[in-house]
Here is the input.
Amino acid sequence: MKRKHTLPGELTLLAGVMMISFAITLMVKADLGVSTISSLPYVLSIAFSQISFGIWNPIFHIGLLIILMAITRRIKAGYAISLMMSAAFGLVLDVFERLLSPLPTDMQFRLLYVVIGYVAMCFAISLMVNSKVPLMTVDAFINDLTRHYHVTFRRLKTIFDIACLILSVALSFLFVGELVGIGIATVVMAFITGSGVHAANRILGRMIIIRPWSSTLANMAR
Here is the structure.
């Protein structure tokens, strides 16, 4: 039996944030539909372009956090760190947008960007959710609701993605007057990202064990 490597949760969370920022930016570059978790911030960034796509993401996350606390009626100390991570995520998104802007946009490359982005996103979510430290707000929202409603992460992730997709389409027509940011890739990922994360969990589970360095952060995530 192959020996598993132990990684600190703080490191896997950081790696996950970087990977998912890269994945989302790559999908925006592909222009075949952004990821479902970023579809709403993307639509808002087009409708209200005074605020960048990167900044709209933490604004969206704040809204999710308010909804989460209203549903669970719990306020955890880890939510403050989640908001800090969401702010960092938004800044990294804007950095990746500039770094990846020179990439070619031929169709074969755009399809490749979607595939790479999808795989990177699934592994990024897996790394973050299993870090056992306070998560970015979107992941904390889904993770805490799975515990609240006693359902699987895969099921709730799929429901969340479909809800984001429907709301993004509605706001796109309401504020922009046409469909923006929503494409075939968005629709497909709304139905398969939950399963992709489940598969990434199984693959990583065979290779690594994730344990936080800080017991304080671990307690804040509970």
The mean pLDDT is 90. The first helix runs from residue 9 to 30.
